[in-house]
Here is the input.
Amino acid sequence: MQEDPVIFVVDDDPSICQSLTWLIESVGIKVETFPSAAAFLKRHPHDGPACLLLDVRMPGLSGFDLQNQLAAAGRIIPIIFITGHANVSMSVRAMKAGAVDFIEKPFEDQTLLDTLNQSLEKDRQAKREQAEKREIKQRLGSLTAREREVFKRVVAGSLNKQIAFELGTTERTIKAHRARVMQKLQMRSLADLVRLAVKAGIGLKK
Here is the structure.
């Protein structure tokens, strides 16, 4: 079961952390606050939908430093920068590095809440897609080398007799391999098999 959504706030100003906590919790979303980037990095990655509200200027690691370290570690999380010291170059830098938004203080409460909800929904969708890809990879890993060869040829549109000729075996053997592929991959039709191949990034060209 996926964990509940959570908003992480990283800001060295306790009053900002408190006000953001009150605002976000008022709409029923869990909040965790951290006084520094280093403190947040010690937190175990969250499995459920999440978003990071991040100050730019902080003692020690800056918000940009944290953004870079998370990317380098493969910890993908939507980031919204909040700062009272914004300029165009900072905003461009943040967005180029993948930030969702760059909001200047003071900001409208509803604007922030809307951005947070949109970010959580995008993260929710991304995590669903990641889980699906992991499951597909696991299923594909259950195929034997020969079954994988048959699978690739089937989704590329080859007929059983063509596959048999290419692999130097009989059409009956290919039918048996094809049936096991369908069973292992839990597919009911050729269309389902093709869709799975597309999601797995397997080429469909002969």
About this structure: The longest strand covers residues 50-55. The mean pLDDT is 90. The domain at 142-200 is CATH 1.10.10.10 (Arc Repressor Mutant, subunit A). DSSP finds nine helices and five strands in the chain.
